[in-house]
Design a protein that fits this description.
By secondary structure, this protein is an alpha+beta fold. The protein has four helices and seven strands; from the N terminus they run αααββαβββββ. Strands 1, 2, 3, 4, 5, 6 and 7 form a seven-stranded mixed beta sheet that branches.
């Protein structure tokens, strides 16, 4: 009976674990919250230790600390609204890929209201602890008139 109970408990715990896709979607929702609140530390914490941020026209930035410093250069801007339309992540073992369309409305330091639409291409990797982290995020955007 003890072996049967142990096997049942293992099976139930595996069934209750969220899918890789749902874990990635939660991380992406967290990222959107951090972007909207301009939480640069939070955004950077979602990257792997060797994770890359690639913004069009800028040199790549590697690692959470450098990414946080790079993002904080935008601290004088104010995000008014941020939304994402993500595709379902494509998971392959401990790697995943995802495309996200985003819209951002913000105010620049001079008070000008700006609309920005763009695309994120995100490569995810599962850490040894089981947490999905951004391995590479490539962003492209276009200003709206």
């Amino acid at each position: 009976m003890t072996r049967r109970c142990f096997a049942s408990c293992l099976l139930l715990s595996a069934c209750n674990r969220p899918s890789d896709e749902s874990q990635i979607e939660k991380q992406l929702e967290l990222r959107a919250t951090y972007v909207g609140s301009m939480n640069f530390f939070g955004q950077a914490s979602l990257f792997a230790e060797d994770g890359l941020l690639e913004v069009a026209g800028q040199p790549p930035v590697q690692g959470p600390k450098a990414i946080q410093q790079y993002l904080s250069t935008n601290s004088r801007f104010k995000v008014l609204d941020y939304s994402e339309d993500p595709q379902k992540p494509q998971v392959d073992g401990s790697k995943a890929a995802q495309t996200v369309i985003y819209q951002q409305h913000f105010r620049d330091p001079q008070g000008k209201s700006i609309e920005l639409n763009g695309k994120l291409i995100i490569s995810w990797s599962r850490s040894p602890e089981g947490r999905w982290l951004i391995q590479r995020l490539v962003t492209s955007s276009a200003l709206q008139p």
